[in-house]
Amino acid sequence: MKKWRFSFPVLTFLAGIFVGLSLFAILSFTRGAAHPTAPPPPTSIDAATANQLFLNYIARATKLNDTIKGFDLNKDLLAAMNLILANNSTVSGFRIYIGTDASRNRVGIVVGFDASGKDITSGNNAIYQTDGSNLSPCPPICDSQSPIIRRN
User: pTM score > 0.90 for this model?
Assistant: First the structure.
């Protein structure tokens, strides 16, 4: 009987470890890797829609009191620029405006400009809307440790 009194707690402890490790293994290896969802591809929009997105953003924008040092360009913006260039080889450059959609999500508005610096807003696929969740000037989105902007 004394042997059983000692064995029971040890067996219970070992069974608990086995069950715990089994649950850990099942939960660890049966769930798929959590992949972030890809942002939607650039969407062609007209000048009136682009203007409304911009006005939505400006109505709620905070004022920057610091000098803008640079701007963040992600792959979505580059894809929109490539689409514009593919449809219009006379584009001299690109502008990225910030907008806000009806759900208050930040969007990027990409448009090409001509040799005189005027936005090219007419024609098919002249303006694109992209995901703008990471779209922001520097500051506030900056690599503060970058040797490019470091002040000695």
Answer: no
